[in-house]
Amino acid sequence: MSSISINHVSKSYETVHALNDISLDVKKGELFGLIGPDGAGKTTLFRILTTLLLPDEGTATVEGLSTVTKFREIRDILGYMPGRFSLYQDLSVQENLAFFASVFNTSIKENYHLIRDIYVQLEPFKDRSAGKLSGGMKQKLALCCALIHKPQVLFLDEPTTGVDPVSRKEFWEMLKRLKAENITIMVSTPYMDEAMLCDRIALMFNGKILDIDTPANIIQKFPQKLYAFTPQHSYHTLEELRRHENVASVYAFGDSLHITLKNEQALLSGYTLEQIQPTIEDCFMLLTKKENDKVQQTV
């Protein structure tokens, strides 16, 4: 049985289609990533799975329980860390943790082994109010509060957005350790590099799933040779290449341009191209281009 099962779920806000016929399954103990930019529908899907929102169409289950009819039971077995810091700002670190433990009729001592690696970093600040913590420390406290009742499923909505690179790395190391506890983890992120840290991922765009697979398999599916070119004047060269008759796609990646060609046998005169391995971001850009082309054809 899947830990999370989503079947043809759709959700709209007036004229905005936040989710469009979403279906996916997450295995027990899997670290599954929802990857996509703001507006892709990640938060709406999380709110449905955590029983905070009803779908317009379709069904979803968490540990075999319907998110509509069994919402009380689901709330007892899940941990949820929303994108916006939502703990009590005026309470101290220790008071927030004790409060959430009491809500689930447990104690900090009972499940301390789950949060030990995280809490040791918070302990020097245990008497500080949550509102005065740094961004990285706030995220660690939120994760502790989501774990204190030993949930079967953990939902993390963009947990590293706005967090410094060191804290981001530490956070993902914590998730790997939690995965060893057989907790199913579903995490959303706009950062494409974090996709490589998941067992499987779903690439989301405009309320749709573009692909679901392991990161390695998604990269392997990239259908064309990919080239990089580092220009002296990026914007001017980008516009020039977009007008070139043999360029299928060109996108800026840092200080270089990533390029695919319509005819890979024909060289681009005046450009020294280096063939490179595609990344998840390259795959995402290709899939979104295909999706936009499909939409334009129907208009």
What does this structure look like?
With 299 residues, the chain is of the alpha/beta class. Helices cover 33% and strands 27% of the residues. The protein contains nine helices and 14 strands. Strand 9 and strand 10 form a beta hairpin. It starts with a strand and ends with a helix.
* Relative strand content: 25-35%
The end-to-end span amounts to 41 Å
Based on secondary structure, the structural category is: alpha/beta
How much is the radius of gyration in Å?
22 Å
Largest sheet: 6 strands, mixed
Outline type: globular
Give the mean pLDDT: 90
Discrete helix count: 9
Order of helices and strands: EEEHEEHEHHHEHEEEHEHEEEH
Give a brief description.
The protein has 299 residues and is an alpha/beta fold. 33% of the residues lie in helices and 27% in strands. The chain is globular and about 70 Å long.
